[in-house]
Amino acid sequence: MAGAGVGGLATAIGLRRAGWTVTVLERRAALERYGTAFGLHPTAQTALDRLGLGDALRARAVPYRDARIRRPDGTVLAALPLERIERRAGRPELLISRPYLIDALLAELDRLGGVRIGYGRPLTDSRALDADLVVGADGINSVVRTAYFGTRSGPRPVGTVAWIGTAGFETAVHGETWGDGRFFGMTPVEPGRTNWYATVPAATTVREVREAFAGWHDPVPRILAETDPATWIRYEIRHLHPALPSFVADGRVALVGDAAHAMTPNLGQGACTALLDAEALTRAVAAAGPGGLPGALRAYDAERRRSAQRVALCSRTLHRFMTGRRPALRDALVALLPG
């Protein structure tokens, strides 16, 4: 197993539950407790239930309800479809802090035993791995993907830089505000804190980000003013392009998470799709039994590839729509959405 992120750790849990002995190789010397909030769609919550983690995570997650899409002056354009999701699934969308999710996955691995995590073990050629099953969960720059699928599909920038952080107070205003080529989002994450994310064309400093949103509706300027700049995270948004023709190779190799289908963050589905991958892969492997690994990997690919790639395409399309330079037309279209 390459990679000890959400997808890799969840896959290790599923494989261990199926009776496999698992070794996880992680290039970092230790897992970093960075990041803000992950959204957990009801389907991802079901995957966590099947992995035996649902109750532990729901104890720390918060429901995501009553969120709106707004203009910079605060005018509401539309409601996010959270109520409809909850009504159909019988449970709400949840938000959970990334550090807690990582810690919960590590705690479950420790409880299960039979899993070794080798930190500070960067892969230079995954073909040297002597294992019955090789899982590439090593992110958008996956060494496993390059070794088995070549370099045709790889990280592609979309021309946008994102900033994320956590403010030390709660706000009752949740959702996203869309401006001219930029947007700002706010969600709950845990009591007393607010998760936020933003994109600004060409902004390279904290000061420039604050200035870009200075005239926006409350509490956007306050959130940026009261979040410690030392905790802000800046990253270039990239996605995997073109889409892979398969998530599996050689009858013993499978990709999960960003290694298979890295996407823009606009739908908030990156962690969800990684968890769905992990559960589907380990379920297929567990059902196949000895000697059935090639068929199990084909079943995994058939279940997950088109679905995950569809989500990635929708997220990329939404990114273009949100950051378009014709906000009047975009806002008029958004206002036609139901609810």
Automatic annotation (TrEMBL):
Keywords assigned: Monooxygenase, Oxidoreductase
FAD-binding domain: residues covered: 2-69, 127-311
Gene Ontology MF terms in the entry: monooxygenase activity
Pfam families hit by this protein: FAD_binding_3
Source superkingdom: Bacteria
Keyword Cell membrane: no
InterPro entries: FAD-bd (IPR002938), FAD-dep_Monooxygenase_BioMet (IPR050493), FAD/NAD-bd_sf (IPR036188)
PANTHER family (alphabetical): MONOOXYGENASE, PUTATIVE (AFU_ORTHOLOGUE AFUA_6G14510)-RELATED
Protein name: FAD-dependent monooxygenase
Species this chain originates from: Streptomyces yangpuensis
Organism ancestry: Bacteria, Bacillati, Actinomycetota, Actinomycetes, Kitasatosporales
